[in-house]
Amino acid sequence: MLGAILPGTQHLQNIHPLVVHFPLALLPGAALFYMLAWLAGRESLAWTALWFLVLGTASAAVAAGTGLHAREGVMVDPTVREQLLDPHKSWMLTTLGLSAALTVWALGGPPFPARGRSLFVLLLLVVLAVMAHGADYGGRLVYDYNAGGSACGQPIEFTR
């Protein structure tokens, strides 16, 4: 059914690639809006940031869930699984945990924590760095080893 609406999905091994881009967009958006709210002192920007953070964390949970569900079915060589898939999983679960903690913190004093704002923004930037590192592993899985589709034969052994 999904293939009728989105024909490109017929080549996907699972739906994980369809959902990963939401946290990749929403979490940096949250950081941007929190920094703008902090610099401009505008509460409306802080509310936008909070929504981005909540939606980014929720979409990260969906991405993590679909990734964990798809993990065993990803057709890659065991060396690729060890060198790329396992670190990707660890970094992205860390991203989810950190963003969830920041979301709870932000919801405790919405829209922007009154105490520790500089630490909050710094930790949000740490989340982005952790996410970027984990996403790099995911990108290599897709583009170097065809882990997201069926364009070439599997398994492809790991190369540096």
Number of strands: 0
Overall 3D form: elongated
Low-confidence stretches: none
Terminus-to-terminus distance: 38 Å
Helices and strands: which structural class?
Answer: mainly alpha
State the helicity in percent bands.
over 70%
Mean pLDDT, as a whole number? 91
Number of domains: 1
* Beta-strand share of residues: under 5%
Encode the helix/strand succession as letters.
HHHHHH
Number of continuous helical runs: 6
Main sheet record: none
Could you tell me the radius of gyration in angstroms? 18 Å
Give the SSE layout.
Elements: H1 2-5, H2 16-19, H3 21-40, H4 43-70, H5 78-108, H6 117-145
Helix pairs in contact: 3-4, 3-6, 4-5, 5-6
What does it look like?
- By secondary structure, this protein is mostly helical.
- It has one domain.
- Helices cover 72% and strands 0% of the residues.
- Helix 3 packs antiparallel against helix 4 (43-70) and helix 4 packs antiparallel against helix 5.
- The longest helix has 31 residues, at 78-108.
- The radius of gyration is 18 Å and the shape is elongated.
- 29% of the residues are buried.
Brief description of this entry?
This protein is an all-alpha fold and 160 residues long. It contains six helices and no strands.
Features of the shown structure:
mainly alpha
